[in-house]
């Protein structure tokens, strides 16, 4: 999974404070989430190793920024990623995202399958996001709404399994969610 957006102001500005305050909790929640495999870090930032040089999609052009909020991660399956994305700590961040991020005309995220043992690079995520924007969902680049299985066949996400995973994550992440609820947007 790769996602990319643009903040409403510089990362250190008060307008983006709510994002900054939640960032560590989101990464910690992902690490605790069922089905999480790993994520790329950022060059020069303490944490996981960066999976190649961090690059950004063409949508950054003329934005006034030279970087933007983005992440690159690996998950065992679509249901695990969906359970994390739309529940708990990350869902709380999404609820407030309109305050920190610009409205965008490109897809917020892109999904694709990789072979076991493969670690994607930032450039792979950028290429897939641009492909999704330009050509729509396909086995090469897709979304939760138009998903594909590893062999390229259309697939419907198992919402019952998503609920089960979200409940399990909630138990494992209760401390993080309590912390996040104490933060200002």
UniProtKB/TrEMBL annotation:
Pfam families: DUF3291. InterPro entries: DUF3291. This is DUF3291 domain-containing protein. Residues 2-146 form the DUF3291 domain.
